[in-house]
Design brief:
2 strands; 63 residues; 13% strand; binds zinc ion; two-stranded antiparallel ribbon
């Protein structure tokens, strides 16, 4: 049985094409995407996630 809470997901900003060393970690996909979205909104002024961007984000998630 898998213990809950041991898997950490992470995403790096540069993996979606930004020149940025920001990395965020979370335990769930949704949390990760939310945190990342907050970062690119504040720091990169990306207010809307396009389907293309969303695909990049999903692919960049490391498990
Ligand atoms: Zn960034």
């Amino acid at each position: 049985m898998e213990k809950e809470g041991e898997i950490m997901l992470s995403i790096k900003c540069k993996d979606v094409g930004m020149k940025c060393d920001f990395e965020v970690e979370a335990r769930t996909d949704n949390e990760l995407v939310n945190k990342f979205q907050e970062h690119i909104s504040k720091v990169h002024n990306v207010k809307t996630i396009t389907p293309d961007m969303f695909t990049k984000i999903r692919k960049a998630i490391k498990k």
